[in-house]
Amino acid sequence: MFVNKNPQSTLKLGQARGVVIMTAARAGLDVGEYAARLVKKAVVGLGNAEKAQVHAMVMRLLPGVKIAGPDAADALAVAITHAHHLATSRRIA
User: Fold this and answer.
1) Which residues of 26-37 are buried (b: 16+ CB within 10 A; e: fewer)?
2) Backbone torsions φ then ψ of 35, nearest 5 degrees
3) How crowded is the C-beta side of 20, counted as CA atoms within 13 Å?
4) Mean pLDDT to the nearest integer, 8-30
5) Mean per-residue pLDDT of the chain
6) Do residues 73 and 82 touch, judged by C-beta distance below 8 A?
7) Are 79 and 86 in contact (CB under 8 A)?
8) What number is the average pLDDT over the span 54-70?
9) Is the dihedral of CA 3, 10, 72, 33 positive or negative?
């Protein structure tokens, strides 16, 4: 966990994140976590890609999908990364 400008907000965010992960795990769902650099590298090919590059590549990878803003593009980029990693781990296993 990192501390941003407001330590109380950071702590609350960490607690909320923990509840979401715990709930998913209790439901038997696999939980994946990916660093921002890994997501950028998986989607764009560069770990230091800009947000606009990620958005553009998500649009290219998912033609016809309406992306409702930068946060939605980020969420889709994480989903794409997870799908790639899941497919890779299944081939290895």
Assistant:
1) eeeeeeeeeeee
2) -70, 150
3) 9
4) 90
5) 89
6) no
7) no
8) 94
9) positive
Tokens of 2: 């990192």
d(CA 64, CA 18): 34
Location of structure tokens 């769902």: 29
| pLDDT value for 4 | 66
Structure tokens at 21: 């992960």
pTM for the full predicted model: 0.74
**Is the model's pLDDT at 44 over the cut of 70?**
yes
Q: How far is CA 1 from CA 18, 44, 85, in A?
A: 11, 26, 24
User: For residue 87, what are the CA distances in angstroms to 12, 31, 34, 44, 54?
Assistant: 34, 15, 15, 18, 21
